[in-house]
Amino acid sequence: EEQREIQTTLLNYRKDGTPFWNELKLAPVRSKQGELLYFVGIQTDITDRKLAEEERTQLLERERLARAEAEVASERITNILESITDAFFALDDDWRFTYLNHQGEHLLQRSKADLLGKSFWDEFPETVKASFYKEFKRVVLEQVSVQFETFYPPLNSWFAVHAYPAKAGLSVYFQDITERKRHEAERQQAQLALQESQQHLKLTLQAVRLGFWQLDLQTNELSVSNQCKANFGLAATADFSYQTFFERMHPDDRARVQESVQQALATLSDYEAEYRCVWPNGSIHWILAFGRPTYSSDGTPIGMDGITLDITSRKQAEQKILEQAALLDVATDAIFVRSLDHRILYWNKGAERLYGWQAAEALGRNAIELLNRDDLTQLNEALRIVVEQGGWQGELTQVSKTGQVITIASRWTLMLDETGVPKAILIVNTDITEKKQLEAQFLRVQRMESIGTLASGIAHDLNNILTPILSSAQLLLMQNTLTDDRKRHFMKTIELSAKRGASLVKQVLSFARGVEGTRTILQVRHLISEIQHIAFETFPKSIELSVDSANDLWLVSGDATHLHQVFMNLCVNARDAMPNGGTLNIAANNFMIDESFARMHIEARVGAHILVTVSDTGTGIPADALGRIFEPFFTTKELGKGTGLGLSTVLSIVKSHGGFNDVVSVMGRGSHFRVSLT
């Protein structure tokens, strides 16, 4: 209609029905007068060109889809890496930071923007002196992976570091294991490397031996990386399906892992599990797996992305530690490890038995606050010596969980890390409380024997001196030669003083020789009833008296008068200890002494005893006086209010009856005197 030149592309079909593209050009031919005479057409076959254009369009579309898929995968891996608690950074050949994840920023206390492009050694110069420099150099020069633990003073933190050679530089992931050092609960987690492109990410994952997997929940199809296959002992060309995953897993772990995956999907949470897998050659390997669910727009779980890491070496190391710990638990000594800031890192069964604190209660606690409450001068000196010389040993006084004071023989050994830096102290403590108590009892018995021997000699000498004085005074009084009343009064005073001195000498001799008397079979409960009656009648009413005697109290062989004197002396002492009133209690019970008790008390004998306890709520006896109260002439009373022979007489009478004495006293709370008789 327009009678102009046109050009178009047509799809035509040949005689055999095959399609082909042609390009048609039509041009009008006119007369000299301008009238249209006819059209001239040129038809060109452009099928090859058309197919090439379509192929190019398809290639561009596939490239676009591949880039989009890589970006999605990279984002998923980024989310996983950024969500785990481990830190990661990558260094190039010049030791400059090329990547740092969020956790790395937190642990290094530096931002990503501050570190990217800067030298690791310049930004953290203290690492040159530590293990970092040596180990990182080894990774780059030998192209081997390394792992180590080290203390970094500027951050006051312990780190577990894993470094791997990369295509350009090295990749490092690390953990803050300060808490693990305190609790001795080693936990190593895998680190993922993150790079800008999918290819770089793949290389990084291979370098750190992390396997990547992706599960489609709608089809149950599992896609895994070659490294993931390697973690299960399979070649890169091997098939690996969701079924293969569970077939390779140890049968005892399948149900637990399946439950963990389902729980993660149900609770919209991350998945983490450690499980065993069986390699084709039959060997058992441990796998650490992380996973994160992916969801559709309506929140329906559609898949899960994750990583795997072979942690067999770590598990073997943990097992070796457990075996070594089991050996330490067999030891009877208390063995524990404390950090240089006194935190308890290890606590064996022997320590649980000695101190009463379970391992779960002790780990992480301050050892000094837990076990020591008195002067810390000796502890500080021990710490100084062990740091300077590498070891220390000596005796310490400590307390148990119940507050019981114990004496221990302690041996300290300084523990160093691989760089020679002190990291902790190994302590082996042996309970020598019983030994020290027996030594004290033995020394007291020796001292009492020595005092008895001395007192006996002095008593004989005093008796020889007093006898003529008393005899002369009595003779003069009998002769009535003293007519002056004043002289007779003085003479009477001499006689009374001489008798008092003779009585005192008799008490000393009783202590030194042991008391002899008429022994009969008697019931101590009757003696206690007499004491109760006397005390009720004569003691201040501000003192409350209570008696508790067993109805089936066994009989003893003894002198009633002497035992009456023992119990009366103890009650009078209790009364004097309560000037402002209080409670006096007399208790008597049957008591069977076994060999264990006899070993703790050198004067005790195995067999049936009765135990009489006289208790008061008075002022108590000072600790420095407890070891001397049974010595003759030793007294804690004011001058003129006691001779110091009461308890020494009690000791002598009880020993002569085959028994023994014991006393426990706390200042401000009172005393408990126990008398054991057979």
The dominant shape is rod-shaped
CATH first level of the largest domain: which class? Alpha Beta
The side-by-side strand order for the widest beta sheet comes to: 5-4-8-7-6
How many structural domains in the coordinates? 6
What's the N-to-C terminus distance? 144 Å
Question: Care to count the β-strands?
Answer: 25
Structural class: alpha+beta
CATH topology of the largest domain: Heat Shock Protein 90
Q: Which superfamily, in CATH terms, is the homologous superfamily of the largest domain?
A: Histidine kinase-like ATPase, C-terminal domain
Please report which band the strand proportion falls in: under 5%, 5-15%, 15-25%, 25-35%, 35-45% or over 45%.
25-35%
Secondary structure tally, helices: 22
Low-confidence stretches: 185-195
Chain-wise SSE layout:
Layout: E1 6-13, E2 19-30, E3 36-45, H1 47-83, E4 87-91, E5 97-100, H2 102-108, H3 112-115, H4 120-123, H5 131-142, E6 146-152, E7 157-166, E8 169-176, H6 178-183, H7 198-207, E9 210-216, E10 221-224, H8 226-231, H9 242-248, H10 251-267, E11 271-278, E12 284-295, E13 301-310, H11 312-330, E14 334-339, E15 344-347, H12 349-355, H13 359-362, H14 367-371, H15 377-389, E16 391-399, E17 405-416, E18 422-431, H16 433-478, H17 485-513, E19 520-522, H18 524-538, E20 543-549, E21 556-558, H19 560-576, E22 582-593, H20 595-600, E23 607-616, H21 623-626, H22 646-656, E24 660-666, E25 670-677
Parallel strand pairs: 20-22
Antiparallel strand pairs: 1-2, 2-3, 4-5, 4-8, 6-7, 7-8, 9-10, 9-13, 11-12, 12-13, 14-15, 14-18, 16-17, 17-18, 19-21, 22-23, 23-25, 24-25
Helix pairs in contact: 16-17, 17-22, 18-19, 19-22
